[in-house]
Please model this.
Amino acid sequence: MPTPYGNRGGLAFGAEELRVLRRALALALHPSPASDTDVRDCLRLAESVDEAARESARMRAFLFADLDRYRAALPGTLTGYLSLLQDALAAGHQPGADDLAALRALRGNPTAAALLERCRALAEQGVRDRLEARHRRRVPASRSHLLALPGGLSGAERQPARPAPGTPPKPMPTPAEVFPPKRRPVQPAAPPQQLAAG
Model:
């Protein structure tokens, strides 16, 4: 069963819209005063692009809803489901556990078997991307960036050097070495006694 979504994936510009787009790009690359006509044309083009984006989002929502309905009605909707799934993948659908389970049940069909491999790869990549994104949110920015600042210390300077394997440990200092006894002040020598003149 053919689906109505196969030719809705792109945004097509007419000749007039392309002319406005080229003018807008020229103004962006070589800034110069824009005429009132250029401004109005660019605003109309922006509105058209926004409407096309909204329409594309609506079409994707319909497509994904149809995919769910066809999957729920398997195996009687095999041809329609496989066609819808291909359209959905082209529109950015991330295959989930339901799609993988359905395709595993249908893998006697060559198209379903090929889609199963494709969906497995996409699902695994999606899991990896989510894990990496979660890891980036949890791990703070690397402190190594501080080493570029004047006065920054390298890792070797910040960490004490480890002894080589097999090196005997240094002996613990004794309390006398850590806290040496205070020296008593030296008494000044008594002045020499003068002999009485005789």
Notes: The chain has a mean pLDDT of 78. Residues 42 and 171 are 81 Å apart (CA to CA).
